[in-house]
């Protein structure tokens, strides 16, 4: 797992674009020579860069999201070669890494809010605990807090929308908040389900995949 140093600042701006990001200080007017944070399209620009330079590797031995990189190998003996390939690309395009946020030869770790392991992808334990520790909502704000924590785990929860439906029905009655039996049952079932969330793994080639669609009449 690797993290780029200074992120967007590693992308230099063209001369004609520098005047678009000027700023005024007590010492005078200045402009950025590298892409600053805060620009509306800065994230997209950086993502296009890494998508382009790592195109031959993405999906094969690397996954990249903006300045976060995960080098992966099917076999331990291939990992050195995969790292060398990745580092050579970074060296070619003069992109620097943050040593303090890099970890090499690990079997698992946090990546984009998930626990990535040799066996597959696990839900973040902290996000699970955040819901398990919640008490029964007593008002709309507490209910919205509960609903807001579910999407981070939805890919691990079968029929997450259906399991959360009783909560959304209450929101339609903002003036008369009433935690009924269906909500209590859904709340308890959700917590029970979170205790044993499944592990997400890549499907084997040739396996039959089933697609379930949820529609509203």
Automatic annotation (TrEMBL):
Presence of keyword DNA-binding: no
Domain Reverse transcriptase: 1-116
CDD domains: RT_LTR (cd01647)
Keyword tRNA processing among record annotations: no
A Pfam family reported for this protein in Swiss-Prot or TrEMBL: RVT_1
Keywords: Membrane, Transmembrane, Transmembrane helix
Transmembrane spans: 20-39
InterPro entries, per database record: DNA/RNA_pol_sf (IPR043502), Rev_trsase/Diguanyl_cyclase (IPR043128), RNA-dir_DNA_polymerase (IPR053134), RT_dom (IPR000477)
Domain of life: Eukaryota
Database matches in PANTHER family: RNA-DIRECTED DNA POLYMERASE, TRANSPOSON TY3-I GAG-POL POLYPROTEIN
Protein name (record): Reverse transcriptase domain-containing protein
Origin species: Sesamum latifolium
């Amino acid at each position: 797992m690797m993290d780029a140093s200074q992120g967007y600042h590693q992308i230099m701006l063209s001369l004609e674009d520098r005047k678009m990001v000027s700023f005024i200080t007590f010492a005078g007017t200045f402009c950025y020579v590298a892409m600053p944070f805060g620009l509306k399209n800065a994230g997209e620009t950086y993502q296009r860069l890494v998508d382009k330079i790592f195109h031959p590797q993405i999906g094969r031995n690397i996954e990249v999201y903006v300045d976060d990189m995960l080098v992966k190998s099917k076999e331990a003996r291939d990992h050195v070669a995969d790292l060398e390939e990745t580092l050579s690309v970074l060296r070619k395009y003069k992109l620097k890494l943050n040593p303090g946020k890099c970890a090499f030869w690990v079997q698992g770790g946090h990546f984009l809010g998930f626990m990535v392991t040799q066996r597959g992808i696990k839900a973040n334990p902290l996000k699970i605990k955040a819901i398990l520790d919640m008490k029964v909502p007593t008002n709309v704000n507490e209910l919205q807090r509960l609903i807001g924590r579910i999407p981070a785990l939805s890919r691990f929860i079968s029929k997450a929308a259906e399991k959360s439906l009783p909560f959304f029905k209450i929101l339609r009655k903002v003036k008369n908040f009433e935690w009924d039996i269906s909500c209590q049952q859904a709340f308890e079932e959700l917590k029970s389900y979170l205790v044993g969330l499944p592990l997400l793994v890549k499907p084997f080639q040739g396996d039959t995949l089933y697609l379930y669609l949820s529609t509203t009449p």
